[in-house]
Amino acid sequence: MKRILLTLALGTAVVVAAAISFAHTDDHGEGVKVVSNYDIKEKLDGKDSAVTVVEVTIEPGQQGVPHRHPGPAFVYVVEGEYELGIDDQPTKRFKAGETFYEPAGCLHRVSKNPSDKGRTRLIATLVHPRDAKEIAIPEPTEK
After folding, report:
1. Which CATH number covers residue 66?
2. What pTM was estimated for this model as a whole?
3. Helix, strand or coil for residue 29?
């Protein structure tokens, strides 16, 4: 019984530590909080995979940094408006209640709250390899 409790405690500590490492607010006013993370049976490009659900909050007029995801993302706009630009496609605007999809590995070059009044809030579901070190990989900046 003690071994089971110890295993559960260690497992919980690992999940909490992982959630804390994914939660952040960057210098541009974009906050990311992990809602859940699960290992799943399905494979992604032949690899064991997981799914992570995050809540993204962007303050008025702010934007995130260009980045890529190691797997596909399915996003629901909960509140406000959101401006999205991926790869070389035209930038699109989404309003609360709308959804969009981002293919794995694409350059998420624009991630912006175009409003000067209210915040933007998104729920993103990302499928990714279990061994992914990051679920949002910042694009290197040119110097």
Report:
1. 2.60.120.10
2. 0.78
3. coil
With respect to residue 58, please indicate whether it lies within any of the assigned structural domains: yes
Hey, what are 91's tokens? 């930038």
* Residues contacting 38, CB < 8 A, separation 6+: 50, 51
Inside any domain, residue 143: no
- Could you read off the pLDDT tens digit of each residue along the chain, which spans 143 residues? 444 433 333 333 333 333 333 444 445 578 999 999 999 999 998 999 999 999 999 999 999 999 999 999 999 999 999 999 999 999 999 999 999 999 999 999 999 999 999 999 999 999 999 999 999 999 998 76
CB neighbour list of residue 54: distance below 8 Å, 6 or more residues apart:
22, 32, 33, 34, 35, 123, 124, 126, 135
Which domain, by its residues, includes 102? 2-138
